[in-house]
Structures are given as structure tokens and as C-alpha cells.
Amino acid sequence: MRLLLNGNEAAAHAARLARVEVLASYPITPAAPVMEKITQFIAEGSMKCNFVRVESDHSAMAAALGAAMAGARSFLITNSQGLAYMSEVLYHTSGLRQPVVMAVVNRALAAPHSRFPEHGDVVAQETCGWVQLFCENNQEVLDSLIQAFRLGEDEGVRLPVMVNYEGYIQSHTRETVDVPEQEAIDNFLPLVRRPVLDVNNPLAVNTVTGPELYMDYKYHQDAALQHAGEVLEEVSGAYARITGRDWGGAVSGYRLEDADIVLVAMGSLVSTARLAVDDLRAAGEKAGLLKIRLFRPFPAAAVRESLQAARAIIALDKNIVYGAGGALARELRAGLYGFPAAPVYSYILGLGGRDVGVEDLAGIYRQVSEQLGSGTAPAPYQWYGL
Amino acid sequence: MAVKELPVVPSARPGTMAAGAAMERIRERRPVFEKQKCNLCRECLFYCPDAALAVDQGEVRVDLRFCKGCGICAVECPVRAITMVPEYAGNRGFIEK
Amino acid sequence: MELIKTLAEVPEDELFTGGHGGCRGCGAALAVRQAMKVLGPRTIINIPASCMATIGGSGLTTAWKVPFYHSLFECAPAVASGIRAALDIQGIKDVNVVSWAGDAGTADIGFQSLTGAAERQENIIHVCYDNETYMNTGGQAGSVTPYQAITPDTPAGKPTPRKDMLAIMAAHHPPYLATASVAYPLDLMQKFQKAMAIQGFRYIHILAPCFRGWGIREDQTVQLARMAVECGLWQLYEEVDGRRRVTVVPERRIPVREYLRLQGRFKNMDEAAIQDLQDEVDRRFREVQS
Ligand SMILES: Cc1ncc(C[n+]2csc(CCOP(=O)(O)OP(=O)(O)O)c2C)c(N)n1
Ligand code: SF4
Ligand code: SF4
Ligand code: SF4
Ligand SMILES: [Mg+2]
């Protein structure tokens, strides 16, 4: 069924199709309409789900975690201040290996106060042990959220998953979205129950752990997160077989074959960059695009493979790690270590909702092309669009 | 060194602390019961923070794997049927506070 | 429901076993032991950061025999809310879902999630085991630490009085609310039995002395808990749908001075302050007992 949906509505439909059983969420702009839509689904009987109307984001994450530990499929939404406030519980959720899924409707962190999009909120949580997926449009929001449950619940993964899409640019913009049939999703996503808080099999969870065990637990957790990258390929493939839509696994290239200079982006910038690449190609430039769909675990191997022929790389970061630069640029440089022929030019742009259009990206491309021609080494990072 | 096999969810199986309990390592005193005085009121059982006391074959017994020697049972016994005795011989008063 | 009338009727099973890591004479562990006798095996408990969260589990070993989760400091009632939502959707019935927190995990950092769960009338039991300080981090003062108590961060005595958590919780109109004491195990266990038979948000506040924090001997834990009741500072009652019933009337009333003078933490309290407290206790005693 094809519907005109904004990102938030697409997320709510995904939760419905995934047969989410517990929603624990606390309102925050511009993510709150997801929970409103789900409670509406519940009220009209098209979804069987318990909504826990918590008094804070911290409690939302805590209740979602409690529900998952007691065996229910559990979902929530948040962003920015809410995500930062939850931080401590994010670590519990991954450390306790609970496959909670969260839609993060990316928004800039205060101060100064802002309610507009960027990726600073999720980048601040890059070490929290969750799988982190980014979506370029509303169809991908719906599809990735459904995939997220199967990925997180996979026997070899058992980890929480964040699905990121940007406030307003995606959350409040309507696009045509194909909403799959319930039966198809039921086949794709059977209900898996692994309660750890179970009166028939009592366990003490999160006991005090000393130096003799803590590190081994963390080794296993990291291995599971790395493994999630491989499982994502499988899950994306299986999803493509039922819906005909293949979002690729961790990364996907656009006009990469003979590309000299490659733009690398996440989230809504990907769709903008596609158009910029087309324009540049039309003007005779050998431009290409690498879309990063999976930020954690970072798909370094896939990135190296995709970029091995590139002469220069442009990292587009809608975030700033103060004093260090863009998070994506940093990952790319680390991942491409040993490829001296492909310098990474790092751009910080679009913070706090500042608009980035096709022309901006084409302009950045030309700047880099000139610098490359003149042999200028890339700056650690530069701000664009001030 | 090999990585340890561990439960996926960091957790412990029920009752495993009891199995490894060895409070003689920290206990300085232990309760001794005067059977003749005890009226089996069971109060001591419910005041022991360490589940060390039980009525067994008509008398109160202490499980010395669990007893930490706090002395609450002795203070609370309504008929003063319990006395705390030092665990260690040697210089009297050296270990006892 | 048959209330337990004698200690001989209480089940022998220990759902929080010996061998745990609490100090000698730990009032917190004692409160759990007593309550678990009646809560029984169909109980899921979560305890946020505190002594009680840590002493029952170490690495791959635990003293718990019911599902237990050592949760984060702020959010035990929220975790319990999520657990209940999950059990309900799976049709799992007859399980006590309990959040069990210290005084900080209840009245201070844990208060936001507590008031939220209470207002939503979540079908859970929240228990505060109150040792009147932050014992797990060394005994610092919190909002229910008594007036003039010496703690590591109030070396001259706490300058402000104890917050009235019972009044605050009563303002949420829970169907069941009770005070309890480790010195009165039968009363405590009966209160858990009553709470279990009621649906909705239930609140039980247990005075559970800690010898370290209070400056007493380790064998005085129960004695001091009893004296708190006998002097009238800690009154034992329950409220069912807001109707109060005093459950223990002390056989003898003792002056608060006797209770205070046994505790190192009140050594700075002068006679005038003690008299003021006595007046306040007497007033409050008449109010509750009437
Ligand atoms: C967010 C957070 N802040 C601080 C701490 C440190 N902390 C752990 S337990 C504790 C005090 C607990 O006091 P209470 O709830 O009264 O329990 P008690 O230890 O006294 O039994 C503190 C401050 C923590 N674990 N988490
Ligand atoms: S001395 Fe303390 S631990 Fe030992 S049996 Fe008596 S009350 Fe229990
Ligand atoms: S408290 Fe004293 S009298 Fe009662 S059972 Fe224990 S030892 Fe016997
Ligand atoms: S410090 Fe106090 S509350 Fe904590 S374990 Fe020791 S006796 Fe119990
Ligand atoms: Mg405390």
C-alpha cells in the first residue's frame, strides 16, 4: 500500500508492522508525533501494545529496558536532550544485550537552544554500544526500523538498535512510502522472546563484576556489535526479497565505478548528494557518492573497498566533535589509514538546521577539486556555510 | 589467555552465593544456644540478617557458613538463651571489640 | 487472604539466602529477608544503586532466588513499570513486580520516577528501605537524613529536618501505603501480604538501621529499630485507600533522648534540640494515633 507519509508517520507504521508490544516514551520535539500516532493505532485497535506514559526520557529508556528484559518487544523514540538524558540507560541496555529499538529523530543539542536537525545528538552517543543506522528518506525510515528488530533480536547479535532520521527535514516532510502487508512482515520478523527476568528461570542480572570478568563481558559485547554489521547484510537481503527494496547493508555507492572524488554522507544529506553527483557528472566531473547507512559498528572494511580507487574523499559531517572535527571524517581517516593517495577533506555543515542544498555540495566538490589540483593538503576540518 | 565463556546477559544463577559462603573467614564470634532455656519462639530466626538460623529437630541451629557473628540474635532472644563466644583462642580481648 | 499470625507459619524458604555480601548485622539485608518470605518466588525485583543492589550479587554468584535486576539509581519504579507492561501483554499473571530502593533511590535521585509511577497508578510495589543516609557511598546525608545527624558531609550535623516521604506518597493517593520496621517482622510480613492482595501502586517504607551510618554497635540494629517505634519517631501504620490504621502501639513509650543518645551520629544534639524534637514527636504521635 502506497501512502503519503512523513518520517514520523513512517516510523509509527513500522512499529505497528513490527508488532511492538511495549512503547515507553516521553515527548520531545520533533519526535513526539511518533508516539502520538502509535497511541492512536492502539486506541483504534490496529495495534496491541502497552503504552507506558513515563514522566521522563530517562524513565522511558528504563521502562523500555525493563519491558525487554521481561520478554516483550519494546520500542521508543527520542532525540537531543532526551537522548543525552537517557545516556546512562543506553549503556545498560547494550551491556545487558537487550534488543530495544529506538527511533532517534536527530536534533541539535543545546546550548544555545535549538530544535532543528543535525547529528550531534547521536554522535555524542557513539560509544554506547548500540547499532546505529541512518536513513536517507522516509521509505528507508520504515524499512530500517523493521529491519532493526530482526537485526537486534538475531541470536548472534542481541543488541539495541537506533534508527536515525533528521528532525523536520525527514520527520515533518511527506513522501510516498510503500507500506508492506502485515503478513509479509510477520514472516520476515517472527516474535522472539528471551526474557531474562522470568519467574520460571530466576537470574540475578547485573551483579557487581570485578576485573576478572568485566573485560571478558565487554569483549563479547564488542564482538556481537561487530557481528551485527555482517548480519545487517543478511537482513537487508532478506528484506529486499520480500519488498523488492534493497538498501544495501552497511554502505552503498552511487556512480562510484570510475569516480575520482567521492562525497561521503549519512542521513538526509545522502539524497542531496545524489543530485549533486548527477549535476557534477553532467558537467563532466568524475564525482561519486558513498552512503554510510551503518555508523556503528563502523564498516571500515566496506569503506576501504568502496573507496580504494578514489583520488580524494569529502566527508560531510552534520556534527561537530568539539576540538576534534567531524565524526564521520575521523572514522574515514582511521578506516583509510594506509591509503595516502586518498586524502580526506572534512566539512562541518548543516548544524542546527542550517540548510545544505545541492549547489552547496557541488560547490564543496569544486573547492576540493581545485585544492587537489594545486596539491594543497586538506585542513584537519573546515566549517562550511557560516 | 583465552576469553572467558560468559552468559550473554551479565547475570548469576540463583543461590550460588550460598553455595560458596564461608563466613568463618570474617567471623569473630559465634552464637551458642542453651537448649534448656530456648522456648522455640523463633524470633532469632527472623532477626538474623544472614539466614543463618533454623529450627531443626526441635532446636535452633546455626549454619556457620552464613553466620557473620553480628550478635543480633543474642541481643534479641527474649529469654537470653544465646551467648556470643569468641571464635579465636589466644589473647582474650585481642579480637573481641 | 489468611494473614500470617505466628512466626511458625512463615515459609522456611530463603529467597534471599545467606552468604550475601552485607556487613554484619545489616538492617537492609534483614528487611529483604523478612519481606521475601511472603513475597514468594513469583516476584520480580529491581533494586537501584545502593547497598542492597550490590550485596546480593558478585560476578557469577548471587544470593537471590527470584529474578533480580540491579538497576540504575534514578529509575527503579520506571523499570518496574516496563516489566509490568511486558508481563501484561504476555498474559503473565500473579507476579509481584517490585522496585526496592534505598532512601536516596526513593526520596532523592529516584523521586522523579517514583512520583511518575505512583501518579500513573502502576501495578507495582515500591519499597523504600530507609537507613537515613547514603550508605553505599559512605553514609552522606540525603533528604530523609534526620535533623542534626552527623554524616561525612554534614560534619556539624544536618542543618535541615527530614523530609516527610509518607506525606508525599500519601498525596499520590495510593490504594496501599504502610510504614514498617525490621524490629516487627510479623507486622512487616502482614503488610506485604496485604499489599500483594491489592492492585495498583503500593508503597511500603521500612526503617532499616545501618550500624555504620548510625554510630551504633552491629548487634543493636534491631534494638534501635524497635526504639524508634517506642519513642514515637517511627510509627507503624497502614493506609488502605487513604484510611489509616495504626498497626503497632508500642507497649511502652520511651523518651526520644534514649533513642538518640545510643547513636554516635546525634552526639552534637543539645538538650534544647532534643526537647524540641520530643515536642514534635509527641504532637505527631497524637495526630497519627488518634
Ligand atoms: C547516577 C548515579 N549517581 C551516583 C551514584 C553513586 N551512588 C551509588 S549508591 C549511592 C547512595 C545510595 O543511597 P541509598 O539509596 O540511601 O541506599 P543505601 O546505600 O544507603 O542502602 C550513590 C550516591 C550512582 N550509582 N549513580
Ligand atoms: S550472630 Fe548474627 S549472623 Fe550469626 S546467627 Fe546470630 S543474628 Fe545471625
Ligand atoms: S529467640 Fe531465643 S528462645 Fe526464641 S527461638 Fe531463638 S533462641 Fe529460642
Ligand atoms: S553499610 Fe549498612 S546498609 Fe550497607 S551493607 Fe553495611 S550494614 Fe548494610
Ligand atoms: Mg540509604
Structure description:
The complex is a heterotrimer of chains A (386), B (97) and C (290). With 386 residues, chain A is α/β, with parallel strands linked by helices. Chain A has helices spanning 7-17, 32-43, 57-69, 80-95, 120-123, 138-153, 182-188, 214-243, 269-282, 300-307, 327-335, 358-374; strands at residues 2-5, 22-24, 50-52, 74-78, 101-106, 131-134, 161-166, 175-178, 204-205, 251-254, 261-265, 287-292, 294-296, 312-317, 344-348, 382-383. Chain A has a seven-stranded mixed beta sheet with strand order 3-2-4-5-7-6-13, sandwiched between helices. Chain A has a six-stranded mixed beta sheet with strand order 10-12-11-14-15-16, with helices on both faces. In chain B, 37% of the residues are buried. A two-stranded antiparallel ribbon of chain B has the order 2-5. Chain B starts with 10 loop residues before the first strand and ends in an 11-residue tail after the last strand. With 97 residues, chain B is an alpha+beta fold. In chain C, strands 4-1-5-6-8-7-9-10 form an eight-stranded mixed beta sheet, sandwiched between helices. In chain C, strands 2-3 form a two-stranded antiparallel sheet. Chain C has helices at 27-39, 51-55, 76-89, 103-107, 111-119, 165-170, 185-196, 211-214, 221-230, 256-261, 271-289, and strands at 43-48, 57-58, 61-62, 68-71, 96-101, 125-130, 176-181, 202-207, 236-240, 243-248. Chains in contact: A-B, A-C, B-C. Chain A binds chain C through residues 21-22, 24, 48-50, 52-56, 58-60, 62-72, 74, 88-89, 92, 193, 195-199, 202-210, 212-213, and chain C through 41-44, 46, 54, 56-62, 64-72, 74-75, 77-83, 85-90, 95, 112-113, 115-116, 119-120. Strand 9 (204-205) of chain A pairs antiparallel with strand 1 of chain B. The structure holds thiamine diphosphate, iron/sulfur cluster (SF4) (3 copies) and magnesium ion. The site of magnesium ion (MG) has 7 residues of chain C, from helix 4. Residues 102-104, 131, 133-135 of chain C line the site of magnesium ion.
